[in-house]
Amino acid sequence: MSKRALCIGINNYPGTHMDLSGCVNDANDWAAELTARGFSVSKLIDSQATKAAMVSGIQALIGGAVSGDVVVLTYSGHGTYVPDTNGDEVDGLDEGLCPYDLQTNGAALLDDEINELFSARKAGVRLVLISDSCHSGTVTRAAAPDPDAEDAPRPRFMPMGNWLPADQLPRGISGQPLTSVPVTAGGSPFAAALSRKTGDLLLAGCKEGPNNFSYDARIAGRPCGAFTYYALKALKALPANATYADWYAKINPVFLPSASYPQSPQIVGTADARKRKIFS
Strands of 266-268's sheet, edge to edge? Predict the structure, then answer.
C-alpha cells in the first residue's frame, strides 16, 4: 500500500477583491502532518494552483494509485457556485472550487468536473477528501465579530458576481445581471464524486445547504482555517488506532461550532469507512 497526497491552499485571488489569509498555512500544515504519517505529498500554493494545475495534480494523484492505495486531497480556499448548464442540480447551481486564476481565466473547478476526475481511478483506491471551504452562501450572512476572536472571521465563499463576467450571470426580472441568487441545496463539490463502494470519505469544514460557512481565522496570532486548526489539534490528541469517527467526534462538538467560529463540520461516508483507522 502506498500513500500519496495533494494539498492545495489559495490565499490570493487576483481581480476578485476576495483574498484570504489562512489557506496557504492550512496546506502547509496538512502537508507536514501527512508527511509525518508516511505520505508522499505534493502541494499547489497560490499562483501554482491554477485550474489547469489543479486538474493535472488531481489526475496525477488519482491516476498513479492502484488497489489498496490511500490518496488524500486537501483543499483550503474559496468555494463558489455558478448557473447549472446541464440540468443536474436541484437548485439550478453547480458548486465549485476556486482556483488562483478564477477571475483571470474565468473558470471554477466544478463538481461535474471533479466527478469526472475521480471516476477515472482504479478499483480499490481509497480516497480521503478534506475540504476547508464554503459550499454555498452569501457573505452578507457572515457572523458578526466575536469578542473571543482575534479579528473578524471571513467566510471562504466567493460570490459569483466577484468573478463571472456579466454576460454569464443569471438575470433578474428586471433583466439586470444577478451577482448572487438564493440557494436551496448547496453541497460540497466533492460530495457527488465520493464512491461508497470503495470507502471514500469526506471531512468538510461546514454543513451543506445555504448560509453555512467555513471561516478564515486567526488563532494564536497565526492565520489559518478554523476547521483545519481544530481538525489537526484533535488529530494530534488521538491514539494511533483512532478511527475517522473518533476524529470527527473530537472535532464536533468539542471544538466546533464555537462562539467565534459558528460552523458545524461534517463527515460523509459509509459506516464502514467511518470505522476505518485514520489514513489507512
Answer: 40-45, 3-9, 70-76, 126-132, 201-204, 266-268
